[in-house]
Design goal:
The complex is a heterodimer of chains A (133) and B (374). With 133 residues, chain A is α+β, with helices and mostly antiparallel strands. Chain A is 24% helix and 34% strand. Chain B has 8 helices and 20 strands. Chain B has a 6-stranded mixed sheet. Chain B is an alpha+beta fold and 374 residues long. Classes of the chains: A alpha+beta (133), B alpha+beta (374). Chains A and B meet through helix 2, strand 4, strand 6 and strand 7 of A and strand 1 and helix 7 of B.
């Protein structure tokens, strides 16, 4: 394993197009570039309250674009520790920077083993490529 | 993440489907048809129509012809507007009502002559409309459902006239000053066959709707694109019509809601004499309408969507949202709603049930958007 693999944060993906990655011991959740493209211009993010307990696959929040409302599911079980307050004024960050500034919630995860069931970057890329065919 | 909108069943495709697919449009189910929801980006497409010009494939719309010596009196009796107020070459927005005064469909009727009318109906209603018209046909007029024969392309936006003239040079000879809103031309065209061009639309902008033989439609679509129009999907079609507060059947207009509720009395001429639904609407008018269509603006956080319930500030149910989203030109979360009449005055504060969360809204005047007068 190359050193760079150690340094890169591990990012995992769900088949519903959420991502979760560990940053300095916290788990950050968002939606993927594919998801934001499919959704179109995000105009509102209905963020949950910090402290909300979620099971794996529970609806964590809604993201609304002009044309539809979409549920965002918790990739793994855990507790919401923080939400991206910036999205209240700038929901378009989800489109502009889905993997960075457009993150949605931070979580304290209860079962790290659930991460194993998610796709890694290579598997997710292949999955999206298949969907786009 | 998952879209809450789903498509079910077998979907029909218009003759332009392959072109949409080639252009990379995102497709979805609408009124039984597989239609392009967007080509690039909904906001951009919306603004293209407001600032330049866009084309819409509305070939899913229905067409019915009505011919015969009694054609005019048949239309007069089955539709709510006064057909005797228009002349040959003019079109009229009208409603097909049931006996209770509810709206079976909203239509545009084109008068070719007093013995020949061409009717444009909503895609999901055309079979129902046709059956209804047949059941009402005591005058013995010739009715034909011609939906499969026609494609329809709408060209909308401030540059629509320029693009139309480039595409149909024959129109240059006739003065376009004599082509006012809600008039139309029928002509034999070398490239595009027998076309009907009407100055009508569903966006709040100037523009035209062109009916033509299905097999010629791809050529016209390409010609409009070459002459500077942008392809526009159904996503922007909905935000454009919502800003202009143009009603959509099944939302603002419904069979179980009296037509007059939808602020559409200008298309319901109770003074013209008896027509299907007129008795019910007259007595309703006398009693006073209980509900009214209004515009809504969201004051709190969130978007309002169709079917969301509305309450007054004390929590009493007062109506529901018929259409709603955030729209590009207005730049706010807006919607249309049917509310109890006493709550319809502009500036009335209400709350919308947004998936269990109460969000403050306010009634406002419609339309939300009006084009600048040229």
């Amino acid at each position: 394993m190359a050193l760079s693999d150690w340094e890169r944060p591990v990012i995992k993906f769900t088949k519903d197009h959420e991502w979760i990655k560990e940053v300095n011991g916290e788990y950050v959740v968002g939606i993927t570039d594919y998801a934001q493209t499919e959704l179109g211009d995000v105009v509102f993010v209905d963020l949950p309250a910090a402290g909300a307990e979620l099971g794996q696959g529970d609806t964590a929040l809604n993201v609304e674009s002009v044309k539809a409302v979409s549920d965002v599911y918790a990739p793994v079980a855990g507790k919401v520790t923080a939400v991206n307050e910036e999205l209240n004024d700038s929901p378009q960050l989800v489109n502009e920077s889905p993997l960075e500034n457009g993150w949605l919630v931070k979580m304290e995860i209860s079962e790290a083993s659930q991460l194993e069931s998610l796709m890694d970057e290579t598997a997710y890329s292949a999955y999206v490529e298949e969907l786009s065919k | 993440m998952s879209d809450s909108e789903e498509t079910v069943g077998e979907l029909k495709r218009t003759c332009l489907f392959d072109l949409h697919k080639e252009a990379g449009a995102k497709l979805m189910g609408f009124a039984g048809w597989e239609v392009p929801v967007q080509y690039s980006n909904l906001k951009d497409e919306h603004q293209k129509v407001r600032e330049q010009a866009g084309i819409f494939d509305v070939s899913h719309m229905g067409e019915i012809s009505c011919k015969g010596s009694a054609a005019q009196s048949f239309i007069q009796r089955t539709c709510s507007n006064d057909i005797t107020r228009i002349s040959d070459g003019q079109a009229q927005y009208t409603l097909l009502l049931n006996e209770e005064g509810g709206v079976i469909d909203d239509l545009i009727v084109y008068q070719v002559s007093e013995q020949e009318f061409f009717i444009c109906a909503n895609a999901s209603n055309v079979d129902k409309d046709f059956a209804w018209l047949q059941s009402q046909n005591s005058e013995g007029v010739d009715l034909e459902n011609q939906t499969p024969d026609f494609a329809q392309i709408a060209l909308q936006g401030p540059l629509a006239q320029d693009i139309l003239l480039k595409t149909f040079p024959a129109l240059k000879d006739s003065s376009l000053g004599a082509f006012p809103f809600f008039s139309f031309r029928k002509m034999e065209e070398i490239t595009f066959g027998s076309v009907l061009i009407a100055r009508t639309g569903y966006t709040g902008e100037d523009g035209f709707e062109v009916f033509l033989p299905t097999e010629k439609a791809p050529d016209l679509w390409r010609a409009f694109l070459e002459n500077g129009a942008f392809p526009i999907g159904f996503g922007a079609r909905d935000t454009l019509r919502l800003e202009a507060a143009l009603p959509l059947h099944g939302h603002e207009l419904r069979e179980d809601l009296p037509a007059l509720t939808a602020n559409i009395s200008w298309a319901v001429k109770l003074s013209k004499g008896d027509f299907v639904g007129s008795d019910s609407l007259r007595s309703l008018k006398e009693q006073g309408l209980k509900q009214k269509l209004t515009g809504l603006e969201v004051l709190g956080r969130g978007l309002i969507r169709e079917e969301m319930k509305l309450q007054d500030l004390e929590g009493n149910s007062v109506g529901w949202v018929t259409s709603g989203t955030q729209t590009p030109t207005v730049g706010k979360a807006i919607g249309l709603a049917i509310v109890d009449k006493e709550f319809s005055k502009p500036g009335t504060k209400l709350q919308a049930d947004v998936r269990g969360r109460m969000v403050e809204v306010q009634t406002v005047k419609i339309p939300f958007y009006k084009k600048k007068q040229a």
